[in-house]
Write a structure and sequence with these properties.
2 copies of one chain form a homodimer.
Chain A (H helix, E strand, L loop, with lengths): L3 H17 L5 H8 L3 H13 L3 E3 L5 E3 L1 H24 L7 H8 L5 H11 L25 E2 L8 E7 L4 H9 L7 E7 L5 E5 L4 E5 L1 H4 L2 E5 L6
Antiparallel strand pairs in A: 1-2, 3-8, 4-5, 4-8, 5-6, 6-7
Chain A binds a DNA duplex (30 and 30 nucleotides) through helix 3.
Keywords (chains A, B): DNA-binding, Iron, Transcription, Transcription regulation
Protein name (chains A, B): Iron (Metal) dependent repressor, DtxR family
Subcellular location (chains A, B): Cytoplasm
DNA sequence: TTTGAGATTTAGGGCCATCTAACCCTAAAT
DNA sequence: ATTTAGGGTTAGATGGCCCTAAATCTCAAA
């Protein structure tokens, strides 16, 4: 009824929408999915015709409610799988993303339900990202902010580390940047790189802005303004 | 590198080859995969070109060694998944086939290995079918025979119930026809239907020949000739 | 030995998701 | 108000997998 690829586009648009508040541009989707922009344009035609996106030519798209529901379903599958793989199949935090990406389109509702049961209906995946509920109601925005919005001296608690790519996640995991960990921001370099110290590991990590952008944190307890 | 669909064709050819000893005909593959024969012909062209099948035009195909290796990999995935789903996700014997069919093409080698570990390197799936080993060496033919080759009065032990379709499997499970169960053949009707009594359930089952053909059994202990 | 029923292949077309090349629109800078 | 750089869309092609219709082959029966 709805191809894997279409699901991928809807999921990509959903995730880009979580970050910007603006209409999502063709080029952003193209980059996210690693295809060319004409390919995106023609897919947007189809998605619009099917009622999954609202479109203004030359000005990008937003998801309709139906589009968002589909995206939430895919995201739910993805995050449940990530949680299941780490909890029951001994996968490492950093490795689960690709496996989940391949499986998310191919599991039944029954499988989804059984996995959720086995995990006790979790609400957060191993990267700290919220798992959409089974009714697929749009969750509200998490109130964490990107670590890039803080300054030298701030103490923050990691809430979520977006699951983009295994190498980056491995690096972060190796240096103790995981959901729940407290970080003190040591330096913000002029070109955007952030250096932080983890309270647990007595070591500091440097995060180029592209990486830092995907680390969401809440203000920590120690330095309350 | 090799599409899901190609894998499906190789798996289908493999499974048909287990049953016949002869070259596999276009029409048999078409029926197995529910596509038309011209579709099969053109896929066979591609598979031949890629070296996965030996072909004689108008006379069917056989798998090459490489083709068989691919098929064994897919079958291994399928049967490991079936075993995992029944053991760890509470699936019923009869339900696992379709789920495994969708997932078998989308799991990594890593996933395969972890599932095999979690199950303790099983050699048989829940339907009694052998799971190809990780090295993908062709297993020898099982020596069980189809229940259709026995006669009234024979006592047999079920070894394998092919996992074709959920409804049939449910019926069999409901009537106690499962791997390991002993059956006494009560009647062989002239049109091929077999009626048997399970020692455990004190009940008899009737199996039309199309169903019976997929129940493999070994001669039982009680009436030794 | 011929023939014809039934199976197989060839021919030609469609849909999907992708690409490159060429054209067009938008918005910011002058 | 004009220009222009950059991104978006259109046009046209490709490869994968499927189809129907037509041509061709095989094999067993007459």
């Amino acid at each position: 009824m709805l191809s894997d690829v279409m699901e991928d586009y809807l999921k990509a648009i959903y995730q880009l929408q979580r970050e910007t508040d603006e209409r999502i541009k063709t080029s952003a989707i193209a980059e996210e999915l690693d295809v060319t922009s004409p390919t995106v344009t023609s897919m947007l035609d189809k998605l619009e015709e099917r009622g999954f996106v609202d479109r203004e030519k030359y000005r990008g798209v937003t998801l309709t409610d139906e589009g968002e529901t589909v995206a939430l379903e895919v995201v739910r599958h993805h995050r449940l799988l990530e949680a299941y793989l780490t909890e029951h199949l001994d996968y490492d935090w950093a490795e689960v993303h690709e496996e989940a990406d391949r499986l998310e389109h191919h599991i039944s509702e029954d499988f989804e339900a059984r996995v959720a049961d086995a995990l006790g209906q979790p609400t957060v995946d191993p990267h700290g990202s919220p798992i959409p509920s089974a009714d697929l109601e749009p969750p509200e925005r998490p109130d964490g902010k990107s670590v890039t919005e803080f300054e030298e001296g701030d103490v923050v608690v990691v809430e979520e580390v977006a699951d983009r790519d295994a190498d980056v996640l491995s690096y972060l995991a190796d240096h103790g940047v995981e959901p729940g960990v407290e970080l003190e921001i040591v330096e913000v370099a002029p070109f955007g790189m952030i250096t932080a110290r983890s309270s647990e590991h007595d070591e500091s990590v440097s995060l180029p802005d592209t990486v830092a952008h995907h680390v969401r944190v809440a203000r920590g307890a120690e330095i309350e303004q």
